[in-house]
Write a structure and sequence with these properties.
FAD/NAD(P)-binding domain, eight-stranded mixed sheet, five-stranded parallel sheet, 20 strands, 21% strand, oxidoreductase activity
Length: 442
Amino acid sequence: MIKFVPEPHLLDSPRGRDWPRPPAPPSPARAASPAPAADVVIVGAGPAGLAVASALWHHGVPDVVVVDRTGRPCGRFFGRIDLLGQRVLRSPYEHHPGVEGFRDCELLDFARLHWGRLTPTERREIRMSQSGHRSVVPVDVFDAYCAHLVTTHHVGEKTWQATVREVTPGRDAVTVHTDRFSVAARHVVLCPGEERRPAPETWWGGGHPPRGVSFWDESVPPGARCQVVVGAGLTAAHLITGALEAGREVHWVVRETGERYQCADVNSTFFRPEGRKRFDGVGWAERLDLMGRFRRASIMFEFRPLLERAEAEGRLVVHRGEAVKEIAPAVGGSVVLRLESGRRVAGDHVVLALGTTPSIGAGLLPDDLVDARDGWPSLDERTLSYRREPRVSVVGAAAGMVLGPAARNIDGHRVATTRVAAAIAGQLRGAVTAPAEAVVGV
């Protein structure tokens, strides 16, 4: 079997190009807050929230309010990407916000429409996609495509900036309370995404990290000369390459005995219907095992030559098979990591890339309605609504124990959106609509 390993130049797609945008429809003067009632409220305007809003537009559900902390669809998503200096997505062209069963301008169509703005390398990726091979999507193309969806599906005019504090089910409606307003809805869809995984309390005693320590979604001081990165995933690879490009010496602490390079951090079988059926056909314990075995930190193949060359040249020092025991500032302003082997690693700044955890609705909904088990909510597998509150659904990583490891991926959002949007549209019409991929409960 021949393994195709792409060249690193795929990582250098331009960012910030000027893309043509469809004209926005005229809209009435915008009020300071949305109407106090709506058919649907979507919490979160990332790729998952954008997919749900677009799908409901196709289903003829116009009375939708989208609440997002940035107030801009996909604003937080692309803000995090740009902070890392990421230029390409891991997901291929067939993974994009949308809903199955409705013809729309898809991501590959959009890229081909703007062929003249693409680099030769980006055009080759489109040809790879059309031939059925793995392809890499430029962040710039994906950003422009999401903006296209926002305009053509009227999502921007339905999006409001606010921080959701609480989701309270009542007798006649579910009320979404924010720091600025409240909206009563017939149905609520939670798409809050994922939050960064905290560091173990034993590393520095809990609370705020010591001076000179930050997380992956925070800026690194420009004056740092020696940077330490903790983590084994794609985020760590972006942090390392960014530090190397800035001329810093980099130390990389990896708990595993070696790095894992692969196309995705989810086994590709779970992106296909037969893979999801494999997940559907087992009980809870088996699902937990599959989630643990097939959702593991890994790095895109494109990084391998860059990182191996930097290590050979001495600009990158990799500490493999080393777990962090303690992090503490040392005399002179540097930060010291004490490893469980007894070794010490010091640097001007430490960045923690420890992964993310799904937001499952805890802290927004009452705990008894989330009904969490092993960190996962109790969901109806046909509609992805909470079993104890069918007027509230989830799309995104929180659906992992229903859809499998791919739930956290953009393609998993498409599968979830298909079920959720069809169920909501059917309920609003007063009919019972069975989603396309009804499965047997665990």
